[in-house]
Amino acid sequence: MQQLMLVLNPGNATPVNEKVYVERGEDRWIYYHLGIPVYSHPANSRRELYFVLVELIRNGLCRECEILRAFNVPKRTLNNWRVKREESGPAAFFAPPQRRKGGTILTPDVLAEAQGLFNEGKSYSDVSSQLDVRECTLRKAVQDGRLTRSPRRGGTDKSLRTAMDAEAASGLGTACTRVDERVLASLGKIPDGAATRFEHSLSVPFGGVLCALPALLANGLLEGASQCLGAVRGYYTQVQILLLLGFMSLCRIKNVAQLGGRPPGELGILLGTDRSPEEHCLRRKMDDMAGAGNAEAWAAHLAGHWMGMAPDSCGYLYVDGHVMVYHGSRTKLPRRYISRERLCLRGVSNYWVNDALGSPFFSVERQIDEGLLATLRGDIVPRLLADVPGQPSDAELAENPLLCRFAIVFDREGYSPEFIGEMWMKHRIACMTYHKFPGEGWPEEWFEEKEVQLAHGEIVKMRLAEMGTLIGSGKKKCWVREVRKLTESGHQTSIIGTVFEPSMAELAPRMFARWCQENFFGYMMQHFMIDALAEYGTEPFSGTEKVVNPAWRELESKHRSMAAKLCRMRARFAEMSLKYPDGNREKTLECERRMAELHEEIECYEKAIADIKEQKKQTSRHVTWAELPEKERFPRLTTSRKRLSDTIKMIAYRAETAMANLLVGASEISMTEARRLLRNLFGNEADIIPDAKAETLRVVIHGAATPAADRVLFTLLELLNQTETIYPGTNLKMIFE
């Protein structure tokens, strides 16, 4: 039998395990095993500490986990000393430290040169690249006191600007520091508005949105604005207002009301003014620019401009409706079905025309909606015939009977054999949609596996088949091309259209690219708030718009209600006939009496329904708005300001998409990740450094959240610098760093 040992705790020693204790004195540490001292070392000797710990483990007196728990030392350091003990023996703990071979990186000459660059206001990255020294080495030298780095001279930080803006509030208002110009503008002495002038400013909120200025200008932010939009008088210019609205959209300041929660002085720095306009002032400026149909004219001009910039993307145009739900009480707009809500609600229908990647060209608003086909016939097709570039000539159309001008793609709402045939015979415009009545499935052996390239360039495999199909009947019938896709579950998706030339492998992804437009609606609702009202005014309709006759609607409601009741009574009568009691006389008589009463009610309802049908024939289903009774008339929402806002949001979306495509092409990231990086960039701070002599405007972006994001954005900034963009209203070339 093993003899048990009596372990005594010597003094105030700390247990490492049940056998080993350590007494930590102020000058010396003593280690005990079974109450007997075995090791000791000075309290401040780290090398001897690790020697004792390693020996305790090697001799089996302690486990590694017990040492780590009792002494709280790094595991990696302990393991390194254990390896040295095995390789070099106990002498490794007491050998003098080796000196680093080679010369010092920061020699006196390098230190003097680095200090001179820091005195000039250079950043760590600038000095690092110029001297070929790592940034961490420079930062350590600053921490050690070998180098001194003062803030950049001449710039104002946010704290100083906040104090200056607050001090100006006692005069004309918060951040109104250009008093002379504002007074002259109020007296009409500055007809062209305030000059765009930048000052050296550090850590400007939303300064990163200046990186989007080249893309905004390339996508038409100022294209035709001076000719189409109304003039702006006062302190702010038309260019400054448009730049502010574009920056607001990209920074996710989704309406003018949200502008009140942002520091006006900081936003004014982005515009080259002392502050951004106040909410009421901005609304007045927008009304001046958008009134009298100017916003609609500018939107039409931009649509033609965008189509001219990308004629290849106009071969297939995607049309779909989106309803902006109206919850206000100023007017009672007609109700319409909202698919995303699965309810019939009041709202305004907007029919958007996009390309295959979802980028918008224009939209048509309908507060009294007659449907997609009526909007296509009356508004969209005439505009496309006038604006779509590269349309074949009449001679080319006559020479090739299968050639079309362009193709319109829409969902099942636009399925109409009459309309599809009309567009082809009258305008040679091809239509594509889903087959509303596909009929029986085709044999699976008809389908062939094809490699298909989607709109974004991805190549997938699809099982496809095609054949000619006659849709419609009578004079409305139309010969179309039908392509079907066979899914893994056996479902067949049927696509019909009058696009006859491309192969089915090229045609099928054109229809499926319609989901890019659905994604566009979702992204615009979430990030650009296209469903928000921009103003709350109303105005009367012109009087020629057709609406449903209230009298006909009331008759239709009665007809539906009585028809439903008649259907239920007929079902009850049929049920009673099937359960007719033959054996019991009393039950038979009671059943006959009830059936006679029910039959009499059925005849009354049939006569009433016949009368209602006759009244419906004599009542017009549609009347003009001017023919409505006075109590039934409703005003329309004013939309000039919203049309201007939506147009700028389209420009902002196209600009963000262009920048995201640059990021995707330059690095291996997805479109979703690229958009997320850009949203963070637009909200990031930046230093704005003008140089009048060199005619440059340096925008120094503060770092992103991760080094990987910094590397991606650095590539983007290099591409933006190649554009050599001049800030509007100045002669300053923008340099992004």
Provide an overview of this structure.
The structure is a single chain. With 737 residues, the protein is of the alpha+beta class. It contains 25 helices and 22 strands. A hairpin with a 5-residue loop joins strand 14 and strand 15.
Which residues sit in consecutive blocks of at least 5 with pLDDT less than 50? none
Distance between the termini: 80 Å
Structural class, by secondary structure, is alpha+beta
Q: Which sheet architecture does the biggest sheet show? A: 10 strands, mixed
- Amount of helix: 40-55%
Query: What would you call the shape?
Result: extended
What is the gyration radius calculated from CA atoms?
Answer: 39 Å
Number of alpha- plus pi-helical segments? 25
Strand content: 15-25%
**What average pLDDT do the residues reach?**
86
Number of strands: 22
Short account of what is shown:
The chain is α+β, with helices and mostly antiparallel strands. It contains 25 helices and 22 strands. It is extended and about 115 Å long.
Mind sketching the topology for me?
Elements: E1 14-15, E2 20-24, E3 28-33, E4 36-42, H1 46-58, H2 64-71, H3 75-88, H4 108-119, H5 124-131, H6 135-144, H7 158-168, H8 179-186, E5 201-204, H9 213-218, H10 225-228, H11 238-250, H12 256-259, H13 264-271, H14 279-290, H15 294-309, E6 316-325, E7 335-338, E8 343-354, E9 360-366, H16 372-387, H17 394-399, E10 407-409, H18 417-427, E11 430-434, E12 448-453, E13 459-471, E14 478-486, E15 492-497, H19 504-512, H20 514-528, E16 538-539, E17 546-548, H21 550-578, H22 585-618, E18 622-624, E19 636-637, H23 640-666, H24 671-682, E20 686-691, E21 696-701, H25 707-721, E22 733-736
Parallel strand pairs: 6-10, 10-11, 21-22
Antiparallel strand pairs: 1-2, 2-3, 3-4, 5-20, 6-8, 7-8, 8-9, 11-15, 12-13, 13-14, 14-15, 16-19, 17-18, 20-21
Helix pairs in contact: 1-3, 11-23, 14-23, 15-23, 21-22, 23-24, 23-25
